[in-house]
Amino acid sequence: MNDVSTFDWRAHFLASGEDADLPIVDAHQHYFDIEQHYYPWLNDRPLRPFRYGDYSSICRNFLPADYRRLSGRHRIVQTVVIEGEWDPATPADEVRFVESLALHEPTLAAMVGQVWLDREDAADLLRLYGDHPLVRGVRHKPVVTSLEAWREDFAAPGSMRDPRWRDGYARLAENGLHFELQAPWWHLSEAAELARDFPDVTIVVNHTALPADRSEQGLAGWRDNLALLAREPNVALKISGICIQGKAWPVESNRVVVNDAISIFDVSRCAFASNYPVDGVVNSLGEVLDGFKTIVRDRSLADRLALFHDNARRIYRLT
After folding, report:
1. 36, 88, 109, 206: which could form a disulfide with 78 (CB 3.0–4.6 Å)?
2. Burial of 78 (0-12, 13-18, 19+ CB in 10 A)
3. Distance (Å, rounded) from C-alpha 170 to C-alpha 186?
4. How far apart (Å, rounded) are the C-alpha atoms in residues 189 and 172?
5. How far is Cα 244 from Cα 79, in angstroms, rounded to an integer?
6. 50: which DSSP letter?
7. Cα angle at 45 between 39 and 51, to 5 degrees?
8. Residue ranges of the Amidohydrolase-related domain (predicted)?
9. In a domain, 3, yes or no
10. pLDDT in tens for each of the 319 residues of the chain?
11. Within a domain: 2
């Protein structure tokens, strides 16, 4: 149920307290048109290894009408479109594509553009994005490694410690852009260094820092590294992307992840997001949103509004 009318759904929810009235700003979703545009990970074969397993089911168009249909009874008032790993040869074209969708989809409120911070075109792209009314930040997934191979001095080319990559990152603040970080939790000490070295740049951590290993040891490592990063005041956390391969959205096993993340970062720095249609590999959009609602149902109305609506509006500077 997408709704961007002038009706004050926030006040209505505070009065009713009903989940159905909770206004949602989906802080992380994607639109794909794989028939008209090239997304290497969706168009190429064979498909790449992926944490959710076989993702052939989402290798198709996903456009505003699809999102509207799948959101069902949930009160989606605004969304933020995150770059969808478009053809890296023409990243600015994705901004133009999303802009064309926004002309006809009033809930599409902002986007995050693709950039390759260590490329020669980074400075020009950042200036272009900084001047664009839809773009609030950029994403470039830094080079990472496995937990087994990671070392304290990890500094591979294209990583968060790569001087060339950091030269591009240093231009974010002057263009009024924040940085969306997608990296597994064992790289968060590098992100903490980045946050300290560039205090004028907000880092928004994607997908809860990827707590895929739900063993006791895996969750302990995730919590410790998340707490290390949470010490930096210029970091926010998107609680999303926590589906588990082969399982319906597991409220009980996800409850500990959601509650620990909120405890570590505080309600004021967390925002829920769907990661749709990517999480559609495992779960429906309704299951993802219902799962978050179930986990925080006992929290105050103000906390629920913050997590589903207010914080995303602040982080993405939405009007």
Report:
1. 109
2. buried
3. 23
4. 20
5. 24
6. -
7. 75
8. 25-318
9. no
10. 676 556 798 999 999 999 999 999 999 999 999 999 999 999 999 999 999 999 999 999 999 999 999 999 999 999 999 999 999 999 999 999 999 999 999 999 999 999 999 999 999 999 999 999 999 999 999 999 999 999 999 999 999 999 999 999 999 999 999 999 999 999 999 999 999 999 999 999 999 999 999 999 999 999 999 999 999 999 999 999 999 999 999 999 999 999 999 999 999 999 999 999 999 999 999 999 999 999 999 999 999 999 999 999 999 999 8
11. no
Q: Kindly state whether residue 69 falls inside one of the protein's structural domains.
A: yes
What's the number of domains the chain is made of? 1
CA-CA-CA-CA dihedral for 119, 185, 27, 255, to nearest 10: 170
Please enumerate in sequence order all residues whose Cβ is within 8 A of that of 25, keeping only pairs 6 or more positions apart, or say none: 77, 78, 79, 80, 109, 271, 308, 309, 312, 313, 316, 318
- Residue 51 corresponds to which tokens in the numbers above? 């944490």
